[in-house]
Each structure stands twice: as structure tokens, then as C-alpha cells.
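[Q] Does anyone have a clean C-alpha cell version of this?
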Amino acid sequence: MIRSAFSMIFFCVSILFFALLSMLLSVLPGLGPSSWGLRSFGKVALWVAGIRLEVIGLENLNPKKPAIYMANHSTILDIAILLAALPVDLRFMFKQSLAYIPIVGWSMLSTGMIPVKRGAKGPALKSLRKAAKRIKNGVHVIIFPEGTRTKTGELGELKKGGFLLASLAEVDIIPVHISDTDHVCGRNIPFTKPGTLQITIHPVIPHSKESKAARRQMIQTVQAQIGNPVRS
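[A] Here you go.
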């Protein structure tokens, strides 16, 4: 109980600390320095919580080839988990309105996180095109294609925006499954318990501009894999 409470406090404080650190590191050339700061946040937060990661499928990653990673989403801790698990220059997409949050929002912008607009098709598509250009320039992006954290523990229907982004950026998709997190963390509050999580990185799904039927099949494949820890 004491460790869990300390971990929750540390998680909240470390967000601000590592946001400032990553923002300072972002003035250095390249993505590497700020990526180190972001990964350090994930690793330290999990270490304090006593959460160990077992990562399967690292051979499916190519740090030199940008890709879109799609993962299931069930807890507030998922971002820290993925930052610690994936050894690439990983960035997230976030609602543009969050950019106005002091320190955290500024850090997301300065470290290369990608803001997107939701709602109206015109502005949303424009923001996706900007995001596609960033990805083509070498940024690896993680997306939670359900759009929000699951409330039931079951994988929800995947939104099409991430697949459109992959098409615009002409990059591959890599499905990632985060094992059941109920035994280590709640959905909305970072009140953690020590334990082990398995992260499965599935094989690459190559970029394709084929028929609508082929794209539907791609969505079904991703849906099956990010909801399943067993590698195909």
C-alpha cells in the first residue's frame, strides 16, 4: 500500500520533471536526446512501481525505418509502458487542445509529439497530412486506434484515422499488444501494484494502397493482433 501510494505520487511528479528535462534536451540536434528523456520517464516510473516488462518481438522493430505502432489502451500507465518497451524515437499523437497545458503541453510540442484536431473532417484531415509529413521525416508514432481507454477490458472497434495516416505517410503498421494491466494499475488512477506485464510486438504489416477490401482486411488483422498476445 505504501509503495503504491508513493508510486502514484512519483508518477505525477515525474511527469513534470521529465517534461522539463525532455524539453531542455529537445534543443540538442536530432530526436535522440529528447527520446532518451522520454524513455527514461517510462523506465523510472515503472521501476518505482515495481512493474517489470517482458517484451516479445523486438526483432520486428527497425529503428531506422519510421512506422506507425498501434496498441490496445486500458490504463493511464500505457504511455509510460510503451516508452519503456519500444527502443525507437517514439512519439505520440495528442489532442491539439492539450498543447496549451503549461509545461506538459509545451514539452509535447518541443519534443516532436504530433497534435491533431478532432471533429470536422476538413481540419482533421489537414492535421493528419501534417502528421504524415512528420512521420516521413523519421518519426515513429504510437496510436491507440480505439480512440480512448477501454471501459470493459475488451478491445473496442478501431477508428479509421490511424489507417488513413499510415496511407498518407506511406509507412508500415506494427501492432502491439499490452497484456492485461488490471493486476498492476487501474484505468484512470496511477495507483500501481508490483507485477509483470508482457508486451507483444507483432510482425510488420506492410504499407499498401490496394483495394478497399484489402484495407478492411488490414484493419481486421490489426484488430485481432492488438487484442491478442500470441504472435502470428
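[Q] Thanks! Anything notable?
[A] The CA atoms of residues 99 and 106 lie 6 Å apart.
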